[in-house]
Amino acid sequence: MNISKSDQMIIKGISGSPGICIGKAYIVDREGVNITKRYPVSDDMVPKEIDRFKQAVSKAKNDHAKVIDSLDKDLGENLNILETHMVLFKDKLLYGKTIETISHEKINAEWALRKVSGKVKTMFQQIDDKYLQARVIDIVQVSDKIMSYLFGAQDIKISDINKRVIIVAHDLSPADASQIQLERIKGFVTDRGGKDSHTSIIAKSLRIPSVFGLGLATTSVKNDDILIVDGSTGTLIINPDEDTFFK
To answer: Is 188 among the domain residues?
Structure first.
């Protein structure tokens, strides 16, 4: 690894899974699904807009089911976590309310989903229970998956990455983390998430170094930057200088 030209940057996040790894960055960018515009839908187009939303949910759910089917049935808790996400795709707080919002407010599915998921997120964050607060991440991840199908965005499959790299992402869902091939992926870091998230639980079961809640990772890191991930302290070092690298 060439470290002669270093612009070292250190970002502190939240420890996900302990361990240290060093490698090149591989950016997985899904941030575009958050760029949502609102537009009105005419009365005669409302049923079609609802159907478009239902189709996106169905595609997202089927994709999630394929991930579950591809995993070893002995994974226990990891499979239970993925089954939880499967239920959320048709949860009335997300699914039912989005359809209701499209119908009553006559707006596009993307904006309706964003509005509903935002309300659900706020509601959970106000509950004085750390476990339930952590489940906000699950709602957001399921919403993002549906949104990607509404946008027609190309899905990024973690299992298709064939390099020895460290993944840098805005967020990784439990389904994403469960597809990590340890002989290829050295570790991962995300802008969102926390130590009580389901993705963190899966990372610990895989014993792969990870850091969550970095906020600036995807905007600070470029593909092939040299990274040091310290999952024990929740630290990401970008392009370490020689003193840091050889400590």
So the answer is: yes
Please check whether residue 86 lies inside any domain of the structure: yes
Which of the four pLDDT bands, split at 50, 70 and 90, describes residue 85?
A: confident
Of 119, 151, 183, the one marking the end of a domain is 151
Sheet with 235-238, edge to edge strand ranges? 9-12, 235-238, 226-230, 20-28, 165-169, 185-190, 210-212, 14-17
CA distance 100 to 8: 49
**CATH value at residue 122:** 1.10.274.10
Q: At which residue do the structure tokens 């870091």 appear?
A: 189
Judge whether 36 lies within some domain: no
Read off the pLDDT of residues 32-83 as tens digits, 9 standing for 90 and up. Answer: 555 678 999 999 999 999 999 999 999 999 999 988 888 776 666 777 888 8
CA 12, 148, 36, 89 torsion-angle sign: negative
Q: Is residue 106 part of a domain?
A: yes
Domain that holds residue 127: 41-151
State residue 170 phi and psi, 5-degree precision: -65, -40
pLDDT tens digits, one per residue of 148-203: 899 887 667 788 898 999 999 999 988 899 889 899 999 999 999 888 888 998 99
End of a domain among 84, 116, 151? 151
Give the torsion sign (CA, 153, 157, 161, 164). positive
Q: Which two tokens stand for residue 12?
A: 């502190």
